[in-house]
Hints:
By secondary structure, the protein is α+β, with helices and mostly antiparallel strands. The chain has 3 helices and 9 strands. The chain has one domain (4-160). The radius of gyration is 15 Å and the shape is globular.
Amino acid sequence: MENKVYYKIVNKNKFNNLNETELARLKLREMMEAIGLEFDELEYSKNGKPYFKNKKYFFNYSHSKNYILIGISKTEIGVDIEEERNISDNISKKYLNDVDKKNRLKYWVIKESYVKLIDKPELLYEDINIANLKYNNKIIINSNYIASIMYDGNERELVEL
């Protein structure tokens, strides 16, 4: 676990009987079992970010319309997943410093994962300069979604479970 960040992307449509939180916890437990970690009691920050009581490892999850992304790391982690969509010019000007159209969603998920990593939901997106972030960030892109996994500490191998 030391030099790895684990993640899983789940299609929610295959689990209609579970809500997003139940599905994320189920998959988190499965992931932890697969990498030999014991599921610990959950607590929540004042902003609502879940974490393990023992703080030996960290996790975060995000959901979009059809997908859930779960990440586990030895250090603080923030993740975001968004399904492919257009971000309007008005949103881009306000929150993304008017980034060109093809990169808007990518910048959005990076900023969202950063806010989740540092647990500061009150941070204004327009005040986040992606070029100055001092965290490791991995981007996953496919035809259905774009995801960002951001974590503290040294560069690590990204492992999909």
